[in-house]
Design brief:
Blueprint (H helix, E strand, L loop, with lengths): L2 E6 L4 H13 L4 E7 L2 H14 L5 E6 L8 H11 L2 H6 L2 E6 L9 H6 L2 H22 L8 E6 L12 H20 L4 E6 L6 H7 L3 H8 L6 H14 L6 E4 L2
Parallel strand pairs: 1-2, 1-4, 2-3, 4-5, 5-6, 6-7
Helix pairs in contact: 1-2, 1-10, 3-6, 6-7, 8-9
Bound molecules: NADP nicotinamide-adenine-dinucleotide phosphate (NAP).
The site of NADP nicotinamide-adenine-dinucleotide phosphate (NAP) has 29 residues, from helix 1 and helix 8.
GO biological process, one term: tetrahydrobiopterin biosynthetic process
Main location: cytoplasm
Keywords: Cytoplasm, NADP, Oxidoreductase
């Protein structure tokens, strides 16, 4: 078994925990592709993964800014330049976790005055292009066993004043994966809502919401490793309906 596992936004927060937990669960015969901007943090995640897998897994790092308006062809080149064709020929499973994201605050008008396209680039278009590039690079005909997971958010289904940038991008991101599930019935596609998790993003949310601020200090929220472990369990059991959404709690 040779498995390709891709985790975007794996330098910190939920993505970092997903990379660590999935590496512990599949601790041999796996090639990882970890993507984010902060290479130093990615190196540190890699170091831990090498120790945990006793160097039986290969870890490739890609420093990338997902707001940079790359085309699908750019993502295809990144995949091609990182993975050799002899490696690709040996893969018989692909697990891709589309985790990276940013928070956007402000009224509908304010968000429009700021860099609207760049925000959607990071939270939606980069994911659309990467998913498509991967599907072209390793199609169903080459590796039928594939799991693609969007790290979703409660805001995908809930309109909130002054969170329109976030709600719209997250809603579209969920729909993208639901459509992809219908187009690729042989794959397993999941929208996973991680719960409210102690990360840098949550700290940022606390600046804009008293609910988050209160919950943050009272320890009401979840640890990244707990939600990551649950996701890995879901992927391993493989009992979910493709195109569905599962919430941590
Ligand atoms: N925390 C929560 O309570 C919560 C709740 C629901 C959903 N989520 C979702 O879970 C996912 C992870 O959130 P988190 O809380 O772990 O956030 P976080 O701590 O802020 O981490 C975000 C990750 O995304 C990467 N990233 C952000 N912008 C990027 C860019 N332009 N290019 C490349 N990588 C970028 C960051 O890496 P670099 O900075 O190194 O680039 C980092 O690894 C997000 O999609 C978020 O919306 C979080």
């Amino acid at each position: 078994m040779k498995r390709l596992i891709i985790v975007t936004g794996s330098s910190r927060g939920i993505g970092r925990s997903i990379a660590l937990e999935i590496n512990r669960a599949f601790n041999s015969d796996s090639s990882f592709l970890l993507l984010a901007r902060d290479l130093e943090s990615l190196e540190s995640v890699k170091g831990q993964m090498v120790i945990d897998s006793k160097a039986k897994n290969q870890i490739h790092l890609v420093q990338i800014d997902f707001s940079a308006q790359y085309e699908m062809s750019d993502y295809f080149s990144i995949l091609k330049n990182t993975l050799t064709s002899s490696q690709v020929e040996k893969f018989n499973e692909v697990i891709a976790i589309y985790n990276h994201g940013t928070l956007e605050f402000g009224s509908v008008s304010l968000i429009a005055q700021e860099n609207l396209r760049q925000k959607f680039e990071t939270n939606l278009f980069s994911i659309w292009s990467l998913l498509s590039a991967l599907n072209l690079f390793i199609p169903y005909s080459l590796v039928p066993k594939q799991t693609h997971v969007n790290i979703s958010s409660g805001y995908a289904n809930e309109p909130v004043a002054n969170w329109s940038g976030h709600c719209c991008a997250r809603s579209a991101r969920d729909m993208l994966f639901k459509c992809f599930a219908l187009e690729q019935p042989g794959f397993k596609i999941l929208n996973y809502e991680p719960g409210i998790v102690y990360t840098d993003m949550l700290k940022q949310a606390c600046q804009f919401s008293n609910d988050y601020k209160d919950g943050y200090t009272s320890g009401r929220f979840n640890m990244p490793e707990d939600t990551a472990r649950k996701l890995v369990e879901i992927i391993r059991e493989n009992a979910f309906l493709s195109g569905s959404k599962i919430k941590f709690n």
